[in-house]
Amino acid sequence: MPEAAELPTRREEGWRYSAVERLQGEALDDWRTIDIAAGETFRDTLVIRDADDPQPTRLHRWRVTIGEGATCELFAVLAAAEYGRLEVEVTLHKGAHFEFGGITVGGRDTVREFVTRTIHAEPEATSNQTVRAVHWGHGTGNFLGNIDVVRHAQKTDAAQDFKGLLLEKGASVNAVPQLEIFADDVKCAHGASVGQLDETARFYMAARGVSPELARRLMVQAFLGDALVALDDDETRETLMQIALDKVDKAL
């Protein structure tokens, strides 16, 4: 019989905040491969929700290659599983574009996370990643994003934006954006922030007759919406948003 794969540890950067103890028995070497030919456009979504098979751990690992001038758009909502993780490793060729929008929501003792490594291997490629996390109870949302720009990948334009919203004390979010840049003619940016609902906005809405429940829902919806701005399919965007909001509504 083949030996069981050795579990990662939190000493490894990509697993720093993970629930590694819940990986026992998972196929850690099972990667989905996505190859996008030059000039092509590819879009896919990943949803983990309560209606799915209620596995305690849901691990997805994707390895993506984007050909010259091609576009890859990935959108994901992690709203179920005790431990849910989407890991994406992307290599961009000349003039390619990578778009990622991710949402994590959850409470109790759940851990839900995105881990990305974006490799700008050739010049003039662009990438944009927008992640939003809303958590309560003792839930945890994580985003670990690494952008690598090789020496000859001039004219690279890469960005990461993470924001976390804590609805209750005890919840946590963690963001580790990293840039490793060896080219000198590039535009690379990252930002990360964590906060709570804007009490001034809640007071303003209450003064105009909006119930506390509706005010909270509208504010969460606006917050999460940033992750789906780049998705130009209205029906898919509304479906993903509804899955995330339903999770919040059931919990609070």
What is the fold's blueprint, element by element?
Elements: E1 32-36, E2 41-48, E3 57-66, E4 71-78, E5 83-92, E6 97-106, E7 111-120, E8 126-135, E9 140-149, E10 156-166, E11 172-181, E12 186-195, H1 199-207, H2 212-225, H3 234-251
Helix pairs in contact: 2-3
What form results from the Cα inertia axes? Answer: globular
Instruction: Write the H/E string, N to C.
Output: EEEEEEEEEEEEHHH
The number of helical runs is: 3
Main β-sheet, in a few words? 6 strands, parallel
Share of residues in helices: 10-25%
Instruction: Bin the strand percentage.
Output: 35-45%
Oligomeric status: single chain
Q: Unreliable runs, pLDDT <50, ≥5 residues?
A: none
Rg over alpha carbons: 19 Å
List how many beta strands DSSP finds: 12
The class by helix and strand makeup works out as alpha/beta
What is the residue-mean pLDDT, rounded to a whole number? 93
Strand order of the largest sheet: 1-3-5-7-9-11
Alpha-carbon distance between the two ends: 47 Å
